[in-house]
């Protein structure tokens, strides 16, 4: 059989199983072989039944003594029991509704069983264990991602058939590369990853497959970027920020001045700017964005600023208009919530060039609006500004300058992939007068005291944010916030004006609540986490987070960054009634640490990179083996080699690159990112 043949024609598959494989995105033999094991069961070190840890997975070696006939139990199920022993203890194997698996076991034979040991102390049992005959000749067996109707056993045997039947495995990596990095050929690597003789073999295969994947990813991104670079743009001519600084109510920090200078240099250079502005929450990134937009306007160019949500777009619109209108610049707000006359007005100002700065969510790029002369695009807290958005941006302007602002310290490798060869400016200095936010983990019994404290802050003219408990099953956002406000916040803060906000509210209503809070018409704001990254109300001095253990530390740090923006001492209270000791320790770390970078590092270590950005937040194709945050060494090499190939054969038309061209296309086609 060939790589691209349909999987249903493989021995033992057929149309019915093929439909189930389709749920795992497996349609062809090649895709079946690219379904890599998630992990392996290691049968090489069995423990005795008596010693097996309770309720945790273990491998034991035991002899089958007796197979009991199937017995009907409640719920119309049938239970099959197989009695075993290893001399140290008896062990019952239990199978529900499955006569086939126990049918394969022979009385009097020894097997290796893998499963959780449960049951009572005297009658130990394993439910539906996996097993291996001791003479099977392997000690690692693959564990595949499962779907309904396909057992691990079925997938394993289909993969084994495919490995046997396939005539030739196309290899996207040239022989020279394989030799240079001492990597196995593709066919060999597939055997090694699906049926490794030892753990090292699986690891070696994995490394080669990671290399291949990152290599293809790089080539795909290069060819996309190549298309961008083919267009030409015009550098700006002057960048005089003195009038801008003169119009500010405060003087910029040294870090802000440095970042603005770097941006000025980029704007006047021949190549378009591609810069990441990194600064902890509250470091004053908005001001730098305003300066950049000001310089673009000096040169007759429009700028667009994209925020992740409508609320933030509204807020940025107001802030930036406040700074820029005195300098004769016009800001237009364009979001889904802007309707009717306001919308027509904004659109015509954008098209005529009257609007110098356009503020919106990233939907501004999908709007059927023609920009008069877009020269600069700024994104705020949008790690999702990926490949697709770049494409949209390119359709609105010729090689616009790009400024990406983020409070999250993005791992350098990921940043390189997302933004290409980018420069970084860091705001490593807080505006003067900032005091660290005093952070406390509050035990349940201190809740009343804490509310007493909130009441006193409100008496003193301050405002507080309360992030309410996470939504329970069957509950809506609205119910959760309302119930919390009525049952907890209002009774404990009888004299406060309490506002509500939740995710299901219309954008305009959210903006209205936010405005009331900002203008001091509300004392407390009870909200789901829609009080997001970037909201700026300097008079707010307390942030309360209920169920704090359910958030990542970086997310909590972002929430905490909503206070401590004025001159007063500010507080963050983390409640965590249900947290275990480990979760409590994480929260304590946050209480001790004010530095966002340290917090992100700790998060990365304790929660792993998967949670760092959330799933698929970065808009790249999803990868099967590579982990962008950790496989950095391989990434570097793959990047370098991809560039070499790209220089020689950018469109991958040479015959020796045929397999590579197919692989790159497949990686990007699987994913909607490219459309
Ligand atoms: P972030 O980097 O989190 O986006 P913002 O741009 O929202 O931070 O700025 C946080 C607060 O600091 C705002 O209230 C802003 O007006 C204020 N601010 C920014 N720069 C300065 C400065 N140089 N001096 C005093 N206050 C500043
Ligand atoms: Mg911000």
Question: What's the short story on this structure?
Answer:
The chain has 675 residues and is an alpha/beta fold. Helices cover 39% and strands 18% of the residues. Helix 17 links the parallel strand 19 (498-501) and strand 20.
Structure write-up:
The chain is α/β, with parallel strands linked by helices and 675 residues long. The chain is 39% helix and 18% strand. The chain contains 23 helices and 22 strands. The strands form four sheets. A seven-stranded parallel β-sheet has the order 12-13-11-14-15-10-16, sandwiched between helices. A six-stranded parallel β-sheet has the order 17-22-21-18-20-19, with helices on both faces. A five-stranded mixed beta barrel has the order 2-4-5-7-6. Strand 4 and strand 5 form a beta hairpin. Helix 7 packs across helix 22, helix 10 packs across helix 11 and helix 11 packs across helix 17. The longest helix is centred in the N-terminal third of the chain and has 31 residues. The protein is globular, with a radius of gyration of 30 Å. 40% of the residues are buried. Bound molecules: adenosine-5'-diphosphate and magnesium ion. The site of adenosine-5'-diphosphate (ADP) has 18 residues, from helix 10.
């Amino acid at each position: 059989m060939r790589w691209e043949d349909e999987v249903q024609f493989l021995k033992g598959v057929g149309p019915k199983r093929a439909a189930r494989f389709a749920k795992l995105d497996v349609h062809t033999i090649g895709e079946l072989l690219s379904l890599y094991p998630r992990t392996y069961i290691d049968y090489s070190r069995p423990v005795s039944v008596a010693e097996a840890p309770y309720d945790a997975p273990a491998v034991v070696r035991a002899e089958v003594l007796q197979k009991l006939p199937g017995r009907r139990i409640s719920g119309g199920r049938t239970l099959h029991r197989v009695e075993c022993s290893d001399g140290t203890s008896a062990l019952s194997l239990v199978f529900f509704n499955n006569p086939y698996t126990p049918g394969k076991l022979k009385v009097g034979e020894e097997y290796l069983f893998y499963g959780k040991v449960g049951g009572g102390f005297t009658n130990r049992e394993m439910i539906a264990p996996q097993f291996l005959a001791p003479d099977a000749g392997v000690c690692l067996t693959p564990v595949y991602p499962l779907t309904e109707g396909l057992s691990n056993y079925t997938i394993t045997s289909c993969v084994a058939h495919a490995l046997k039947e396939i005539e030739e495995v196309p290899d996207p990596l040239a022989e020279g590369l394989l030799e240079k990095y001492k990597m196995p050929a593709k066919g060999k690597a597939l055997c090694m990853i699906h049926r490794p003789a030892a753990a090292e073999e699986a690891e070696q295969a994995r490394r080669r497959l990671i290399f291949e994947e990152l290599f293809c990813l790089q080539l795909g991104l290069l060819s996309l970027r190549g298309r961008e670079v083919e267009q030409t743009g015009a550098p700006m001519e002057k960048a005089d920020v003195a009038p801008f600084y003169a119009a500010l109510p405060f003087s910029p920090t040294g870090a802000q001045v440095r970042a603005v200078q770097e941006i000025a240099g980029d704007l006047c250079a021949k190549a378009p700017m591609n810069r990441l502005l990194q600064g902890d929450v509250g470091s004053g990134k908005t001001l730098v964005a305003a300066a950049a937009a000001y310089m673009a306007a000096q040169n007759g160019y429009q700028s667009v600023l994209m925020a992740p949500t409508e609320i933030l777009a509204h807020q940025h619109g107001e802030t930036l208009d406040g700074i820029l209108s005195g300098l004769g610049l016009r800001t237009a707000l364009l979001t889904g919530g802007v309707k009717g006359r306001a919308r027509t007005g904004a659109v015509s100002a954008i098209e005529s060039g009257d609007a110098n700065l356009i503020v919106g969510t990233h939907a501004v790029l999908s709007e059927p609006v023609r920009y008069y002369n877009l020269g600069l695009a700024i994104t705020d807290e949008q790690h999702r500004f990926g490949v697709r958005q770049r494409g949209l941006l390119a359709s609105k302007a010729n090689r616009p300058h790009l400024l990406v602002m983020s409070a999250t310290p993005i791992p350098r490798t990921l940043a390189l992939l997302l933004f290409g060869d980018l420069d970084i400016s860091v705001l490593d200095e807080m505006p003067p007068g900032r005091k660290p936010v005093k952070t406390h983990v509050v035990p349940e019994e201190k809740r009343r005291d804490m509310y007493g404290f909130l009441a006193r802050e409100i008496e003193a003219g301050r405002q507080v944010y309360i992030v309410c408990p996470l939504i329970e099953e069957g509950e809506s956002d609205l119910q959760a916030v309302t119930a919390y406000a009525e049952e907890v916040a209002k009774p404990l803060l009888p004299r406060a004006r309490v506002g509500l906000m939740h995710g299901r509210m219309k954008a305009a209503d959210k903006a209205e609540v936010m405005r009331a809070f900002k203008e001091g018409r509300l004392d407390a704001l009870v909200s789901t986490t829609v009080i997001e990254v970037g909201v700026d109300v300097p008079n707010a001095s307390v942030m309360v987070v209920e169920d704090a253990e359910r958030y990542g530390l970086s997310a909590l740090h972002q929430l905490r960054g909503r206070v401590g923006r004025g001159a007063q001492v500010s507080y963050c209270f983390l409640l965590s009634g249900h947290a275990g000791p480990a979760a409590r320790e994480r929260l304590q770390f946050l209480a001790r640490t004010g530095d966002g970078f340290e917090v992100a590092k700790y998060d990365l270590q304790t929660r792993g990179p998967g949670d760092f950005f959330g799933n698929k937040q970065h808009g790249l194709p999803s990868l099967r083996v590579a982990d962008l945050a950790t496989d950095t060494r391989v990434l570097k090499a793959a990047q370098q080699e991809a560039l070499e190939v790209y220089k020689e054969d950018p469109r991958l038309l040479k015959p020796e690159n045929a397999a590579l061209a197919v692989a790159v296309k497949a990686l990007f086609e699987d994913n909607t990112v490219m459309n």
